[in-house]
Amino acid sequence: MIRKHFAGFVASALALAVSAQAFAGTVTTDGADIVIKTKGGLEVGTTDKQFGFKIGGRLQADYSTFDGIYTVNGDNADAAYFRRAFLELSGYVYKDWAYTFSYDFSHNAGSSEDGYFDEASIAYNGFAPVSIKVGRFDPEFGLEKATSSKWVTAQERTAAYDLVDWANAHQNGLGIQVSGSAGDSLYGSFGLSAKDQNDVDGESTKQFNVRGVFAPMHEAGNVLHFGVNYAQRDLSDTAFDARIRSRMGMRGVSTSGGNDAGTNGNRLVLGGTNVSPAGSYDNDSALGLEAAFAMGPFSIQGEYIKREMEADSAAFDDIEGDGYYAQVAYTLTGEARGYKLGKFDSIKPSNKQIGAWELFYRYDHLSVDDDNGARAAISDIEAKVHNLGVNWYVNDSVKISGVYVKAKVDNSTNANGDDDGDGMVFRAQYAF
């Protein structure tokens, strides 16, 4: 019944958004006048700034082809799928209260039990520049995660994040976050969340995140950015999936939203086990450092991540991992990447005939040291991933991308004995 009503709401919202493309302007009422904007979705608000909402979304259709270590037998496989299919509703009431609902029709976010929500939150902004947000949303950890999936440079965020997939994902739990800025150069946030994962007594796993950013240069094409992140979760008396896995930039090996490589898709396991019994581990912590610089159409950025999962039993050893990436990008047509305090934003084409063209290269590196069980006699498993690609920003809403990915793994292979592989990913994106 809930799905039926939600589907009806979605259909009505889409019909309203489409019909609204025919007009834009101010509507006079017996109260505050209403302003309607249709560029980049449907946005409606009162002239006194007390009430307003926006309907938007994003559609990312991907096709990928890959071989070698990306598949179990090493043969070529491919995948065609919706990476994201979001419908987003956001707005504000009585000026200071804001809300966001983002639903993923591709089912890559959320779950059937908890709903496929990427975000469902309420925020109070009456203490500006401080904001208090409650609900389901991703905790803050990392520069690439802070940047919207619409405007990250490569199709997939850095493989180094796979070391700490819990640190910046809501995992169907709920949280509270306090964030704010001091002037135009300082930003910080603190969040506490309860994840959809229980210990033996039925108490949910608790996690806290802290992020701080200093950006003495903070305008598009003129950016100098530094950041630090820390996250910790309590795994005491909790049975959980302790695997540290990576798709190494190739989502098509295992995804939702359409076809993937199925049983022949190989998702690299760098450490841990899928069934870690209660009492095996205690604190799980992650430290992240980030830096970026941009001058005109050129940008460079990187992050370093370190994780430590502390054993809580003499039968287990600590698991440690670290990773990093470095990325350079250049816009051939001269446009600069947008920047908002704490994150990069979109590239807006200055020439509407040819759009904006961007070239990029990113190197990802991650390694895990796990001396438990079968891995006790194995040296650190390392993954190295090269990403070389091009982005065409056709206009403010449409983006076409292609990337070549080359992976090399040390001390691990697929069933065929392959320790390297390559592939390509193509994406067509529409965001409104």
From TrEMBL:
Leader sequence segment: 1-24
Keywords linked to the UniProt accession: Signal
UniProt lineage: Bacteria, Pseudomonadati, Pseudomonadota, Gammaproteobacteria, Pseudomonadales
Pfam families xrefs: Porin_O_P (PF07396)
UniProt protein name: Porin
UniProt xrefs under InterPro entries: Porin_dom_sf, Porin_O/P
Organism this protein belongs to: Ectopseudomonas toyotomiensis
Transmembrane segments: none
Keyword GTP-binding included in the entry's annotation: no
